[in-house]
Write the structure tokens for this entry.
Amino acid sequence: MSVYDVNDNNIITGYYGTSDGHQHAYFGPWTGPYTTFDFGDTYTQARGINDAGYITGVADIAGKRTQFERFPDGHIRAVTKDGQPITFEYLQGINSKGIFVGNYRDENNRQKAYYGKKAEYLKDFTLPNGFPSQPRGINDGGEVVGNAQYNGFILAGDTLTLVSPITPTQAFTSFGGIDGAGDLVSGYWLDVNFAHYHAVLFDTQNKVFLPINIPGSTEASALGMNAAGLVAVNSDVGDFIYCPYAQDSGKCPANGIEISAPSPMHAGVRKLRIRQ
């Protein structure tokens, strides 16, 4: 079972595997019960959910990874551009306004980032430095996060922030979610062998990483995040909702376990602006 996102109503979404090797999407309260659904032939992966219950993800249709949106009434549509389904690459984050972000390949096999709504492509967007990007999350303010050439990125208006760990063991950073104020970003970094995932939050004000240390885990990824800062985390010892606040704050799920406070790690940060 993998959890990919959590909305402001504390509804989670993700997917799980069965003995036949297929993957099935689900959503529901983090304590259950869950509603399951399928769209693809062998896999359906739900990867984003907004407060109204719109769900984004990918599924295999006739052997092609196809991006989809599931509507609250239960019907599912492939996301289309110029009347054709968008295949390959990924679709993940969606905000409460129904705007989602994903990426695709153009006719020249170049990677393109885009905005969409109601299962339709709206427009491309390009990072100020021209790097190809893989957007993975968007908040209600329109701030977009993802990865671009080994860096995590935050795009806020015309300002691009590129973030990379600066220790010798860290090679790749990706962001998957951002809170409502743009103060915290969820993500992970990979080591130099691209073998181990390490879940982190990025504090945009202090420009540091805050590791999410799950007891007993050696692999973890922080993925989607809601406006309040709760994070969907996958790990090799289970899937969790991580709350960055004190357990007695009243902001966290009940019956959680308290883990040690993260020790900040410095990050490499560069800012670029779009020139008009």
